[in-house]
Design goal:
Helix content is 29%, strand content 26%. By secondary structure, the protein is α+β, with helices and mostly antiparallel strands. It starts with 6 loop residues before the first strand and ends with a strand.
């Protein structure tokens, strides 16, 4: 995937230490959770004030997502090595042919460059290779840009499997 800047999607952690970006998804996850809390009207002063389950993801993403697939978008400006994590996405371990996309986040400086769509396409490709029949996700109703992205990529709104209000559930056959 190319644009004004080179962006590559990789699985994290790559078992080849030389292929790892300097930073994993922790900083992106922190930004995601802080922004989500603020959008829900529950803004917190920093990562230390997030709910424990979110702090655990940020503190040790490899342990938090040990059974899942974590994809990172790596990018950089001209002259940069291109190994900075600029986007992330988690695909849960499949259950009965179904997996779920979680934690899609793009660094605001890289939005509008195809990072999120590249991550979702990579998740769809992984799901197809892994025998997943359905990929699903949930998204807050106020994230209209994300909903539009998912719809462009073939996801449709479906009955909710989550009891939280204002959450839109979507799925797509793989």
């Amino acid at each position: 995937m190319t644009d004004r800047h080179e962006v590559a999607v990789v699985r994290w952690p790559d078992r080849d230490p030389g292929a790892q970006p300097q930073e994993g998804p922790a900083e992106l996850l922190a930004a995601y959770h802080l922004r989500t809390q603020a959008e829900k009207g529950e803004a917190v002063a920093g990562v230390d004030n997030l709910p424990e389950r979110y702090r655990a993801e940020i503190a040790d993403p490899e342990a938090a997502f040990a059974a899942d697939v974590v994809l990172l978008a790596l990018g950089g400006d001209a002259g940069n090595a291109g190994d900075a994590a600029v986007g992330c996405l988690v695909v849960t371990d499949p259950v009965e042919g179904r997996a779920e996309i979680k934690r899609l986040w793009t660094d605001p400086a890289y939005r509008g460059r195809g990072v999120a769509s590249g991550l979702v396409r990579a998740a769809l490709a992984w799901a197809a290779r892994s025998g997943v029949r359905t990929l699903r996700l949930s998204v807050w109703e106020w994230r209209t840009d994300a909903i539009a992205l998912y719809e462009r990529l073939g996801f449709t709104v479906t009955a909710s499997w989550d009891e939280r209000e204002r959450l839109v559930c979507m799925e797509r056959a793989v």
